[in-house]
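Exam revision sheet. Question 4 asks you to relate a sequence to its structure. Input first:
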Amino acid sequence: MFECETCTDSFWSNDDCVAHMDDFDHWPECETCNKQFRTQHAADQHMDDTDHWAPCFECETCNKEFCTQQAANQHMNDVGHWAPTVPCETCEKKFHTQQAANQHMNDVGHWAPTIPCKTCTRKFHTQQAANQHMYDTDHWLHLKCMTCTKEFHTQQAVNQHMNDIACCKNGL
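Answer key, structure tokens:
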């Protein structure tokens, strides 16, 4: 059996197949220069060699392909197939509107933390959580008294120490 290269028709002889392909212009063509070939394999090889593959524009949500971006856009407008673009601040989900993203973040607590730690790069959702993090004594910056080298967690505490302690006032 001989099969047409562009439709599902089959023929008992190669001559009949070629006649059909001639009659119905069923010869495989290059996607960009319209050169015709005897087989689809030859057309594909030509397009590989010359980079003559036609551009393809895909729908953002289904598997349909279009020859122009305008046609793809028209399809996505007509059937509402635009991919969501508004991201959640903490997970990979995306939404069609900021309102939908906000609703998701409210529902599952996915708001990105905004309160920074004073000594590292971590961020927290609440000031209370940031404060709790800072109360870990190993986390604070260790500031030292210039005179006695006692360590403190804040510059204010160092200053207070230097004003209150006799060793610092007397330079001991």
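Marking note for examiners. The helical segments are 14-23, 40-50, 69-79, 98-108, 127-134, 155-164, 166-170.
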